[in-house]
Write a structure and sequence with these properties.
This protein has a three-stranded antiparallel beta sheet. A two-stranded antiparallel sheet has the order 1-2. The protein is mostly helical. It has two domains: 67 residues, Arc Repressor Mutant, subunit A, CATH 1.10.10.10; 115 residues, Arc Repressor Mutant, subunit A. It has eleven helices and five strands, in the order αααββαααβααββααα. Pfam families: SMC_ScpB. Keywords: Cell cycle, Cell division, Chromosome partition, Cytoplasm. It is found in: Cytoplasm. Belongs to the ScpB family.
């Protein structure tokens, strides 16, 4: 395998590794090469990303290499995160989230029994938005997944703890509408519009070929 192919594979491996990253020893085990060569490949890839002004960079944290975005691009990511298509929750997702919030830990089957409809898509959406997560397995046939809310759920809704959830006026298991409406009010109050986000700094203009050539000439004359 050629050198460039190794770098391409490393880029893919770091992407797949996510926040955990991979160290030189792990890369060498996967690629079947020595650790020193792995470190050199990572360094070269890091230089490639910087030289080509790519949207990703390689950072080393606690000995592990991670593929990360540039901090200066954060305002753009915030706009994406708070755009209506990204931040909004459907009625189905809100219903599912309210069931999990008030009755966790709970399985998909129990959620669907309460809602009366399939909830796979709503669950997937909530997991993707990091509002719910797997918290265990039920002691039942097939060991189904138990879902619960995340720390991000508390932060998003401005709750110090689950005990701070609005209490339903009734405690009947059939009061899904009331629980959903209360959660929706909390959710609606947390929405941030794009206009409320800090302005994005202007993108610097690239010099024309003539301007760049003129600058080079001036630099040579100064020398």
């Amino acid at each position: 395998m050629d050198y460039q192919s190794y770098k391409s594979i490393i880029e893919g491996l770091l992407f797949m590794a996510g926040d955990d990253g991979l160290n030189a020893r792990q890369l060498s085990d996967i690629l079947q090469i020595d650790a020193q060569t792995s470190a050199e490949l990572v360094y070269d890839l890091k230089c490639d990303l910087k030289r080509e002004a790519r949207g990703l960079q390689i950072t080393e944290i606690a000995g592990a290499y991670r593929l990360t975005t540039h901090p200066e691009h954060a305002p753009y990511f915030e706009r994406m995160a708070y755009s209506p298509t990204r931040a909004s929750l459907s009625q189905a997702a809100l219903e599912t989230l309210s069931i999990i919030a008030y009755r966790q830990p709970i399985t998909r089957v129990d959620i669907e029994e309460i809602r009366g409809v399939k909830s796979d898509r709503a669950l997937q959406s909530l997991v993707t938005k990091d509002l719910i997560e797997e918290v265990g397995r039920a002691e039942a046939i097939g060991r189904p997944i138990l879902y619960g809310t995340t720390k991000a759920f508390l932060e998003y809704f401005g709750l110090a703890a689950l005990s701070a959830l609005p209490e339903p006026k009734h405690v009947s298991a059939d009061d899904l509408d009331e629980q959903t409406n209360m959660l929706f009010e909390k959710y609606d109050g947390r929405q941030m519009t794009i206009d409320e986000l800090p302005p994005i700094p202007p993108i610097p203009t690239m010099p024309s070929r003539e301007e760049a050539a003129s600058t080079e000439v001036d630099e040579h004359e100064e020398e």
